[in-house]
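Supplementary Methods S3. Input chains for the assembly prediction are listed below.
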Amino acid sequence: MHIPDGYLSPATCAALYASTAPFWYVALRRLKQLLTTRLVPLLSVFAAFSFVVMMFNLPLPGGTTGHAVGVSIASIVLGPWAAILAISIALFIQAVFFGDGGITALGANCFNMAVAGSMVAYFSYRVIAGKCPIISRRRVLAAGIAGYLSINVAALLAAIEFGIQPMFFRDASGAPLYAPYPLRIAIPAMMAGHLTVAGLAESILSAGLVAWLQRTHASLLSATAPGATAGGGEGRNFGWRAMRPLLAGLAALMLMTPLGILAVGSAWGEWSPRDLADGSARQQIAAASANRELPPGVPRGLERLSSVWTAPFPSYAPRFLRSASFGYCLSGAFGSGLILLAAVAADWAFAARRRSG
Amino acid sequence: MPAPVFEIEDVSYSYERVAALDAVSLAVPAGQRVALLGANGSGKSTLLRLLDGLCFAASGTVRFCGQPLTEERFADETFSFDFRRRVGMVFQDPDVQLFNPTVFDELAFGPLQLRWPRDLIRQRVTGTLEDLNIPHLRDRMPHRLSGGEKKRVAVASVLILDPQVLLLDEPTAALDPQSQSQTINLLAGWKDTGRTIITATHDLDSIEEIADYCFVFQAGRLAAQGVPAAVLADADLLRRTGLLHAHKHVHASGEVHSHPHRHHDHS
Amino acid sequence: MRPGGEVGSVRRTGFIEGSVHSFLRVLEHTLESEELTRRAGLLQSLDPRVKLLGFLGLIVATAASRRLEVIAAVFAFACVLAICSRVPLRTLPVRVWAGVFAFTGLIALPALFLTPGRTVGLLPVFGWPITEQGLRGAAYLISRVETTATLSILLVLSTPWTHVLKALRVLRVPIVVVVILGMTYRYILLMIGTAEEMFESRRSRMVGKLEAKEGRRLAIAAAGVLLSKTMQLSGDVYLAMQSRGFSGEVYVLDEFRMRRRDWSWLALFFALGAAAMWIGH
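Predicted structure tokens for the full assembly:
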């Protein structure tokens, strides 16, 4: 997802440079204070590492290969601020020396991958890993999820940056000057590749490396695990192991969501005022209701209350997506993801309470 | 006997609970060429680092020209600058020592840290490159240098400061035979220059040329000391400390011949 | 996304070959740049700061332009500079133009018929309407990407990388960043060597195809070894720096001298950039 020059307008590029610069500044200051003389050798060598790792072709389940960025493992080992700088340095060299990614777009790339990527990776890792022991399996899972989320957030930001170009930047004849696709095309197009390939590659690299570090240099994980309890690999985490069948079942269910697209019409009782006003829809409703007569027009209470709440993704189809079926699947993934995250967060919150209580 | 430039009294040092040095005491007189002999892991590299003020002993004292080397002393910029100019170390792995993008930058690094005037630095870089016969490597990047070239650049990067004391960690390690002999010639050429040279090595073949006195280490302790000839003659000592081993080969007739490594007399 | 995208080959052994291939490409690129920067050409003779500022100005002007003619003019200028700097004829097309055209071209293709506007033709076979706005949009995108890519590669092919870094100070980039960039580049080349060795040695011991799972394990192990070498190296280099007097202050010594010629070219770049910005608006 390295954005080349020419896809984003100078105004967008400038805005993103301006958004990234404060992070660079703060990161540099904090690290100078924290690391003093170690700053230069540590950041340089780590930036070199992430550059080289970005070139690995990782074989993924399904027979494809993908590239990771390494931002999540950088955040997990070094913390978010050092990761921001190390990844930015690697991106700079890729852009200027190797032409991989644009120079005007460097601010955007750093914002998406280095800044947003590091922050999302770090916080999701911390939230999910909690205070569990450094060598527990939960950290491996946390690293995998952190990797997946960070790449997808970065991709989403890039997609949004692309998608708003035609909205604001057109020439006199109406032709788009930069990235030509609006949000409703840009977002699914970008996310498709990253939700499947790039996100997986990153999560495999992160999880794999954390597991490897747990076996060989566990101390390297301690920088981002303050308050981690000492102890063996099991501890509280047997819960995750036992949950494997449950998670497998959930995953299978998630995979079956596309079946819902095959359903015809709307569910009984879930009608909108529009359905009740439309003639053919009314006939379908009557047919599904044992041919009972419908009340004439739209019931007043229904009409009044239906406008109280407008869902962000009405009918499981986000407005910017053209294809309703894709929107449906995306909503499924998104919804389950939210629930999983909420469950994990709740688990963490209760565990924290139990430990302190 | 000239005043000692280094005095080590009862020094111990450990890495992660493994004792690398155990109650070592020795003194190095100024202007002498000294070899620290020992197999890998015997503690000689650690000692060099202590002498270079890169790490500090848990117990005992390390003194340089009478002044103790401690972390607090190095916090004082004047002392630190003075020490860094007077003592230079050539690391074993040139990829660690050559951390700048070009040879020019590498040589200029030390003087820049010591805040020499820029014109002087440029002059000295050119001069040092010529002294070591490598002026053509000026703008080269480290990854394009051969092992022998890297070694010479590493030495140059330290020599440019004209240090009083040179510490060398395994200078012939991982070099091809030709570069090895070039390096040894270089070290041998420093005899009688007044510089104190301390070389950590396990290469017995070269010590008579590069050193006037030897300290032999084993498992973090000082096992013996003496002039090179005496140390080399003591095959028992060398075998005990892992510096010598016997080759055995079996002939078809069943005879077994055992040949210890021998030092060849060049005189 | 680098040209070729991220979805790679389906061959089971593709992973090792793919990674090694990337490493080799990087090394080739470094070698080629080093070679070209030594040739006696126009750009090679200019002060790095002039080139940095000049090219940056042109890149921004290209990005800001609302007129295809301006972009084309900058592109032509870049080509002239390349010829005068003894860049071999096949370098630009092979290294830059083909890749950009394939990658960005593919991305821009759907825009031809997805962009609303005045129809000027029909896509053969499918009959989808191609709009004028779609054509212009695609043209803007492709020409911009080609031109900016050409300019940035010319900068790197005509200037030793370390000089590019030192020239960054004219843009007020902090010295510590310049030093870090230099050291990173130096160690990238070292690590690529290490990674390549690891993969090659595995490849030479391979019998038959490598399963995806096994391949993943290998990749993670290689990354892990690289990571621990990274931490080790960072500690060792820190000691080596201290040994040479490093106490936190970073310095850079360059040999840049602006001559009359450099000032003239700087003025020329500035004028061209300004003209491009003004006309392009």
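The mean pLDDT of chain B is 86. Chain B touches chain A at residues 99 (CB under 8 Å).
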